[in-house]
Design goal:
The chain is mainly β. It has one domain (8-87, 94-417): 7 Propeller (Methylamine Dehydrogenase, Chain H). Helices cover 2% and strands 42% of the residues. It is built from two helices and 30 strands. The strands form eight sheets. A four-stranded antiparallel beta sheet has the order 2-1-30-29, with no helix packed on it. A four-stranded antiparallel beta sheet has the order 3-4-5-6. The longest helix is centred in the middle third of the chain and has 6 residues, at 156-161. The model is unreliable at 1-7, 44-49 and 157-169 (pLDDT under 50).
Length: 418
């Protein structure tokens, strides 16, 4: 987690869609450019307690994981995705949104180390290696069967109080090490290197075949899937209706919906991959000209219908849907099933994808954005789509330490000497 320098001043910035208060800024108006958040009373604690280790989000809601392992949420809560009991509006037909970040209803004894947000649910990995889930369960995306056929669970902490474990019930698994959330499905990696999926699988995103060669359509609890390699998985990613795994050796496996080539196969050949398939990497990554070693993939991020990976020389490659500028490497509207290099000269330290746009953080603390820009998601001050990576001008005089995305909104956090 982030180490806090007590001599520094820290700030959280937000921009993009805010119709349900997902930016946590106290009002429901969109922000077309990065704006400093005003902390609510619940965040008026020491900098060490509230400093974000991660900011992410789903459809119109956000999740902040603090450096001390607390979870704060903001935005839409009609399915309990904030980890708080939904509250009806006075008209009795709608649910109240939360306009400031406030604590999720988790026990103080639980320390969270990772969070992943789907469209209207959240998966959280704890320090003990268990998975906690809350929000909508209409498609089994919580990975656990709810009593009475309930379709949502807004209060995960209450299950602990009832001595009902929140560990996603997978026989033989003692500890999980990574978790990811798609639109309506979840993924996880166990400490021993097994990959599990659950939730909706109607587009093949569970990666599990059943008799007669058909895909498993859904599963309310995790099921194990097979990778055709002995390499150990280290990261899972989930898009709208597709999934992926990155291994220690930098191999990527993908499966699920391939409508835009997001699984690395020509969609004219395969519209859906039922089982994990190894992604073919660009030839340039295996060249050893001038004594240089071949490039290795070290991290992967998934949007709704596109993907980006980072290599060990801190460069980015993209593929998938391209019509809104998602790939950041061409104004061509044709989807690309082969990864291609994104021309950013600076070294990239971290990157993330929202539904159809992206952020990349450089080693100098600057932020690039590109892709879909409705609601000002790219932070440019307007709503014109951005087809090539562009530095966010209002952050040029800041030192950005981290970036995060929801489905249509963004965050970053900055530091400056006191």
């Amino acid at each position: 987690m982030t180490t806090i320098d007590e001599r520094a001043v820290w700030a959280v910035w937000a921009w993009g869609a805010n119709n349900c208060g997902q930016l946590g800024c106290g009002h429901p108006e969109d922000l077309l450019a990065p704006t400093v958040l005003k902390m609510s009373d619940t965040m008026s604690e020491s900098a060490h307690t509230v400093w974000p280790g991660l900011l992410t989000g789903g459809g119109a809601f956000s999740v902040m994981l603090t450096d001390s392992g607390r979870v704060l949420t903001s935005g839409k809560n009609d399915c309990g995705q904030l980890g708080q009991e939904p509250q009806k509006c006075e008209d009795g037909n709608h649910y109240k949104d939360t306009l400031f970040f406030s604590p999720c209803l988790l026990s103080d004894t639980i320390t969270v180390t990772q969070v992943a947000a789907g469209w209207n649910f959240v998966l959280a990995l704890t320090g003990t290696g268990s998975i906690i889930s809350w929000g909508s369960n209409s498609f089994g995306q919580l990975g656990r069967v709810l009593s009475g056929g309930m379709k949502m669970d807004p209060t995960p902490a209450s299950l602990l109080l009832n001595i009902q474990p929140l560990l996603v019930p997978t026989p033989g698994v003692s500890k999980f090490v990574d978790v990811a959330a798609g639109l309506r499905h979840g993924l996880a990696i166990s400490e021993c290197g097994h990959v599990y999926s659950w939730g909706s699988g109607r587009k093949g995103q569970l990666g599990v075949a059943i008799p007669q060669g058909k895909s498993l359509l859904d599963s309310p609890v995790p099921v194990s899937l097979s990778l055709a390699v002995g390499d150990k998985p280290i990261q899972v990613v989930a898009g709208m209706n597709f999934s992926g795994v990155l291994t220690e050796r930098g191999i990527i496996f993908l499966w699920g919906c391939n409508k835009f080539g997001q699984c690395g196969v020509d969609p004219a050949t395969e519209f859906m991959l039922k089982l994990p398939s190894q992604l073919k990497l660009p030839e340039e990554m295996s060249r050893t000209d001038n004594g240089q070693k071949h490039l290795k993939v070290v991290s992967v991020a998934a949007g709704w219908t596109h993907m980006i990976f980072k290599t060990d020389n801190k460069q980015l490659y993209s593929w998938g849907r391209a019509d809104l500028g998602q790939l950041g490497r061409s104004t061509d509207l044709v989807p690309q099933h082969m990864p291609g290099h994104i021309a950013i000269e600076e070294k990239i330290t971290s990157h993330c994808c929202s539904s159809e746009h992206n952020l990349a953080l450089t080693d100098k603390g600057q932020v690039y954005s590109w892709g879909w820009n409705e609601h000002g998601i790219c932070g440019t001050g307007d709503e014109d789509n951005v087809f090539l990576p562009r530095l966010i001008s209002s952050l040029l005089d800041k030192t950005v330490m981290g970036v995060g995305c929801g489905a249509g909104h963004c965050f970053c956090w900055t530091m400056r000497p006191a």
